[in-house]
User: Which sequence fits this backbone?
């Protein structure tokens, strides 16, 4: 009996250790290298390891590539502006794609995001959700095809 309890406890510890937070999920995804770098620069990677829950509209590397190189380089060097841009991509709470509603929703940054749904396709401002519901133990990530800039 004691041996069985040790095996069960070990497997539960392994399962718990395998759970990934939002930062770890982004770091592990090959499509989010620029986002992972930006989160480290701003130290928001630590925040997104926290309890949350958070919903992140995560720009892919190809989304960052749409920004002219000089403008992207300048953004990555301006920690305050980069923090403002990145927190504009985060919504408090865990909102799965099946729960997303059309309309305005407040970002962590404080500015409203405009959510549109057309034929079951979700658009956040001018960005399309390209992959939804990437689960993390402290929230959810939805990949988007453009970097959201505060207008």
Assistant:
């Amino acid at each position: 009996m004691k041996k069985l309890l040790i095996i069960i406890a070990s497997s539960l510890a392994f399962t718990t250790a395998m759970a990934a937070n939002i930062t770890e999920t982004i770091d592990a995804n090959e499509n989010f290298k620029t986002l992972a770098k930006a989160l480290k620069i701003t130290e928001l990677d630590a925040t997104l390891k926290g309890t949350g829950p958070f919903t992140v509209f995560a720009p892919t590397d190809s989304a960052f590539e749409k920004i002219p190189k000089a403008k992207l380089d300048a953004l990555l060097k301006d920690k305050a502006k980069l923090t403002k841009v990145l927190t504009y991509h985060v919504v408090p709470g865990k909102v799965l794609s099946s729960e997303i509603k059309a309309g305005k929703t407040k970002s962590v940054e404080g500015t409203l995001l405009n959510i549109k749904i057309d034929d079951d396709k979700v658009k956040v401002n001018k960005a399309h959700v390209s992959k939804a519901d990437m689960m993390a133990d402290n929230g959810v990530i939805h990949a988007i095809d453009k970097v959201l800039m505060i207008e």
Notes: The first strand starts at residue 54 and ends at 59. Helices lie at 2-18, 22-28, 33-42, 44-47, 61-65, 69-77, 79-87. The two ends are 63 Å apart (CA to CA). Residues 20-144 form a domain with the FAS1 domain fold (CATH 2.30.180.10).
